[in-house]
Amino acid sequence: GSLSVSILISKYIFHQDVRTLGSGNAGAANAARTLGPRVGALTLLGDFLKGIISMLLGSWLGGTTGLAIAGAACMIGHCFPIYFGFKGGKGILVSVAVLMTVEWIPACILLGIFIIVVALTRYVSLGSCIAAVCYPVTILVYSLITGDPCVWINVILSALIAVLILFMHRGNLVRLKNHTEKKLGQKA
Question: Fewer beta carbons within 10 Å, N or C terminal of the chain?
Fold first, then answer.
């Protein structure tokens, strides 16, 4: 999780640090805004694959327990990368990849919520935060419908992930409140 695609590309190709540009975030949206759409797309793909690969390795090494540990470690490593001074991305793509690996139906529902909010408002951060708030509710409903015996563990874990995502977006939430947040497509 600590390998940050946007930081590696910005440092070794552009000789800059994406975390000093635009919003200061190492995620796909800031990479696209400050370094161009190709870098944004590579960051999106890299962060998503990072989550999938970590889940596959975790499952292979430790079954269900390894899967849970790998997902948590990848998300924490992405947000607080040990190789880059503990300042990384906000965890959205990694959390989507982790959830997509475990339960694809709730992942698609939350992705749909994100897309609708971004399409209506053009605020990626707002779409991310609303999807994060909907995450535990979606997991609760899905777990109850499917009869999952671990329903409360699923809800608690998804709530912790939602809190982490909201914490990582605290600056965006302030900018949204102050009407200074950049919209999708706006340059930094």
Answer: C
Buried b (16+ CB within 10 A) or exposed e, 77-116: bbbbbeebeeebbbbbbbbbbbbbbbbeebbebbbebbee
Nearest residue to 5 via CA among 56, 51, 70, 66: 51
Retrieve residue 141's tokens. Answer: 């409903």
Give the tens place of pLDDT for each residue, 15-56. 999 999 988 888 888 898 899 999 999 999 999 999 999 989
What type of residue is 133? V
Q: What mean pLDDT comes out for the span 89-107?
A: 88
Most distant CA pair in the chain: distance in Å?
52
Written as six digits, the tokens of 178 are: 């102050």
